Amino acid sequence: MASELYNTIDALSREKGIDPQIVVSAVEDAIVMATRKYYKSQENLRAQLDKETGKIHAFAVKTVVESAEQVEDPNLQVTLEEARKVDPNLEVGGELQIPKVTEGILGRIAAQLAKQVIFQKVREAERDTVYNEYIGRVGEIVNATVKRVEGPDVIFDIGKAEARMPRKEQSRLESFAIGERVRAVIARVERASKGPGVVVSRAAPELVQHLFQTEVPEIYDGTVVIRAIAREAGERTKIAVMSKDKDVDAVGACVGMKGMRVQSIIRELRGEKIDIIEYHEDAVTFAEKALQPAKVSRVTIVDSSDKHLEVVVDDSQLSLAIGKKGQNVRLAAKLLGWKIDIKSEEEKRQEVEQQMAALAPQAATPLENVPGLGEGLVEKLSAAGVTTVEALADMTPEQLEAIEGIGPKTVEKISLAVNNYFASLEPGEAVAAEGEAAAEEASAAEGEAAPESAVTEAEEGLAEISAGGEQAAVEEASAEAGTTLPESESGQAPEEGAAPEAKE
Question: What's the CATH number of domain 280-356, 2.40.420.20, 1.10.287.3510, 3.30.300.20, 3.40.50.10960?
């Protein structure tokens, strides 16, 4: 018949859900520590519980050696001759147990020490038991009862153990009352923890999955499959579903008649918004669905290996597609497993224009196309390696003067010609010095402009001719200037500003 002490140990073991032998070992270790403290001995002590009498016997254990020369530590070893005085049957290598008196001598302090050791061993055993029980159940849904609140953490009773729910595993919409029953997910199990080693969560996506399996028979029997879930607890959840039966609408099955099924889940989650999306293998189509309620204009795969998408939406849909604090696009990216860049139509148009401008080749304009540069000047510039207007415009006056045959006045002439050329390229802007440009073109056949002195003399001669003068005087004045004036029926001089033609 078992003793009263052993029956107490057995009851404690059943209550804590641990092996009785663990408690017995804890009691024996406690007696050993108390005995060593009382005797102040360095001997190898051992204790043993008698199940029938309830008494705990303590021994000093020594190893038997053959001779005194082999005894290295008298506290741990004994010669064969000395050992056989106590037990004639001992052999070399055996153990000699020397009883230690414990009854009536350990006292209150020793008993208190033994009690502490027992409690410590029992707690360690209990934690190991809880760890082994729940480590294989991570991700499982359990029914938990709120036991108490410790600061930001909520402590739950989950049956065989207590579980802790830290703040980050709670939904911001939820608050708990003592005794309230809720469903939670076993998030992880911690071995080296002072408090409850089981951590549960109400923020995990597995909770939403379990609730849909409970509320939607098609998901429970496998007709509708949940392919992906992205959740921000207390805010919004996106869930992608697909049907294995072409006659079953996956989204409709999850929503239920008049939304009854999904509304039941929303109530369980204290009003958290839920978007139910039809899953597609095609990432482009899936992205369009995942960004609901925003309407997507087009989706482009930027890099399939890096899983990078670009989504373009109408300008009015941009804020809706991004969502509050980027929540909608963040959940969509998590649901797809792709990186998503969202741009408006205006942003995309500007980006394309910039890319086209960067890719467009810069047209090189030959110097021959620039009015105001004579043939001789073009040859000098070409000999120096300057063949385009763009290259000429980039040169400094010092660089131009370094070219043989070009002086300060020629540099000014080049500058004026280049400025007039670029000004003529601006839409709607008149070309500067139009009359002078026409004169330059007229003299291009000879390779040089009309002499300035000749033009001046012609102007002076024309000033002396009256409106009613004879044509001969006009021709004489023109001949002196080396120019031919255009004929007119009235016999008058040409209009002011007309370019005189060069005469060979």
Answer: 3.30.300.20
Sign, CA torsion 72/75/80/81: positive
pTM over cut 0.90? no
Residue 342 exposed, middle or buried by CB count within 10 Å (0-12, 13-18, 19+): buried
Reading the block at residue 125, the tokens are 């055993």
pLDDT 10s digits, 133-180? 888 899 899 999 999 998 889 999 998 788 999 999 998 888 889 999
Which residues neighbour 485 within 8 Å (Cβ) at sequence distance 6 or greater?
Answer: 474, 475, 478, 493, 494, 500
Q: What is the pLDDT of residues 418-466, one digit of tens each?
A: 888 777 766 544 333 343 433 344 344 334 444 443 334 434 443 343 3
Q: In the CATH hierarchy, which fold is given to the domain comprising 138-203?
A: OB fold (Dihydrolipoamide Acetyltransferase, E2P) (2.40.50)
Q: Of the candidates 460, 468, 435, 466, which has an alpha carbon nearest to the alpha carbon of residue 449?
A: 435
Helices (H) and strands (E) in the chain, counts: 19, 17
Give the torsion sign (CA, 433, 439, 441, 444). negative
In this structure, is the dihedral angle defined by the CA atoms of residues 263, 231, 236 and 166, taken in order, positive or negative?
Answer: positive
* Domain 4-128, classified CATH 3.30.1480.10, yes or no: yes
